[in-house]
Structure of Molybdopterin molybdenumtransferase:
Amino acid sequence: MLSVEEATRLVAATIRPLPAEYLSLPLALGRVLREPLYADRDFPPFNRVAMDGIALRYAALAEGQTEFLIEHTQFAGQPPRPLQDPNAAVEIMTGASLPEGADTVIRYEDLVIRTDEAGRRLALVQVGAPRAGHNVHAQAADRHHGDLLLPAGTVLGPAELAVGATVGAATVAVTRRPRVAVVSTGDELVPITQQPEPHQIRRSNGLMLQAAAQQAGAETAGFHFNDDPEALRLGLPALLADYDAVLLSGGVSKGKADFLPQTLRELGVEQLFHEVQQRPGKPFWFGKQPGGAVVFALPGNPVSTFVNFYRYARPWLLAVQQPTATATLAAGSPVPAVLAQEVQFKPKLTHFLLVSLEHGPDGRLLAYPERAGGSGDQASLLPSQAFLELPPEQEVFPVGSVLPAWRFR
Amino acid sequence: MLSVEEATRLVAATIRPLPAEYLSLPLALGRVLREPLYADRDFPPFNRVAMDGIALRYAALAEGQTEFLIEHTQFAGQPPRPLQDPNAAVEIMTGASLPEGADTVIRYEDLVIRTDEAGRRLALVQVGAPRAGHNVHAQAADRHHGDLLLPAGTVLGPAELAVGATVGAATVAVTRRPRVAVVSTGDELVPITQQPEPHQIRRSNGLMLQAAAQQAGAETAGFHFNDDPEALRLGLPALLADYDAVLLSGGVSKGKADFLPQTLRELGVEQLFHEVQQRPGKPFWFGKQPGGAVVFALPGNPVSTFVNFYRYARPWLLAVQQPTATATLAAGSPVPAVLAQEVQFKPKLTHFLLVSLEHGPDGRLLAYPERAGGSGDQASLLPSQAFLELPPEQEVFPVGSVLPAWRFR
């Protein structure tokens, strides 16, 4: 049986960058940039006044001058008028462009301004400026015209949108959303609006997978098939042709109603693997339709479905939004967490252990195993924030072990 | 001047739960639940078969019987037919309801099934079951009918939607989205589609605030006003009346074009504070229109706007989505991180220090200060993931200090 590492490698090998599309900048929140953004001007683009006060020549101050005639007042957004007299000053507001002839700003807090009998305004400076350029955010201090600001592959968050706006990127190239068909199977499953018979349960995996795929940036559509190979043979081809990925839950185990592996192969989906050395989620089936969708056929027990999605499908969905294919499922990768209680797990399987996370006062991320009734215990997901990946060769995991945690909250 | 703690308390004091609305479960992703959800049945609702194989009576196996006549086959979704002969078995699939008379399931992997000359199917069990109930997920093993599953205040993620589906919560009560008006001010700002004059810059704070508020669950609309008190007096009243919060950027400092505090007071907005002992973002102004919006008037330097949003406005937006008012801004609270480089900061101000975060191999969250050119250095946000909150009474922060980190990625 395949190891988790080998399964990961086979899933990663199917990563192909999705096409790009052009979006208005405000609509691109959360999307992945496909073309780099450069500074179209210096950052700041001019010597930008950083405090309200007066602009003057540092040398005059350094020579002992303390009172300055205010020649005029300049607001942000006004074209700067030069300082006429090198021993005078310009009253000036934050965000304004520093006038030619001035190099330093003294803030109002350090000034007294008076009007003399001739009606002229004079500023008495009550502190020495520590250096020329004080309270001036100098042109190009942060970035130069032409500098790379956002490389392709950047996820556009609020800060990135702000930088995009500053450089005038009103339209940006981003990866189009992955299109994901979510298919639940199982004769025992009824719609959520229906009262189940005693031996039935309501459908929940499909909604879970759609929500989780949406949070990974996907557009989703939901479908349900009963355990009927003919219905699958009729319904699946359109999904395989139209979507980037098909996420199925259920129907991949050894039971007599588990038609999916056989049906998928008959429909021309190349099986890349079936069964992985892991718990929960051993019967995971994975394949690819040449020219069509990648197929994640996940075991139907809710914890198995959930864990397999976050371990394999979510990193894949994030990776295909990147501009270049990677050989690994690094996107959305796990973080190291410290086991807070001893765990024993004997089978020679990678064990995905549901844990709640807590930030210790020393800055360590602590993982507390959650009591779970196995892969069918859907409610055990509720108090958990992550699952630890426990390697198969080890049986006892002492307190303090540092292990990879796959966060899902 | 107000401390960060006092400012936090005054902001928290304005928290009022927003009204609830009813949504179809799939549309409620990311929203906050307003009514608790209970188990409408046991979890699992019946003795659920957890493996494909045969169901039998444990006692028969324990007495040494190894071969069992298969009476019939039962699929998931079928009403269970009882075991007729206590020494026979039912072939059974995962997800089926365990038949009356059987208590244990032996999986296919541990069986050989043959057909005898009379056409009857017989299963030869090749292992002993370790206990009665093996491979059966017993009714109510995880939760009981009536148990509280999701308390009011739960954020509905993929796992919560799945549980909601299981209990048939096709429609759920959730908090309606906060309505946020984002207003930028400043005569130097031009639209992003416009080529700025040398002394102008493009608008970016408004887009940043809208994006960040959306990520906190808000519906947003964007506005811009020039530095003109008359325009503000005409434009702001409708926003104060129609929105839950108004986020302004710029116009709150000491400059001659900083009309906002005065204008807001004239419009009847009660000033709760102006200026906080913090850097960046000291001129932060905060108030409340009686019967109307809460007003966050943030300083306009991009890093000041950003940090104040994440320190005060985002926790507020998360808190008003909770069903009960809290006295603190605990929602979206900071996590402890370990300073990886010494930092010195002399002024008696709380310092918000931009940092990039890295998970150390020992499970500690490490914070690396980012070089930043001050509160105007928008690009310094790009490599950062968080800001540390450095308390005002301390000047030197040695390597290894554990400090609260406000994450924004």
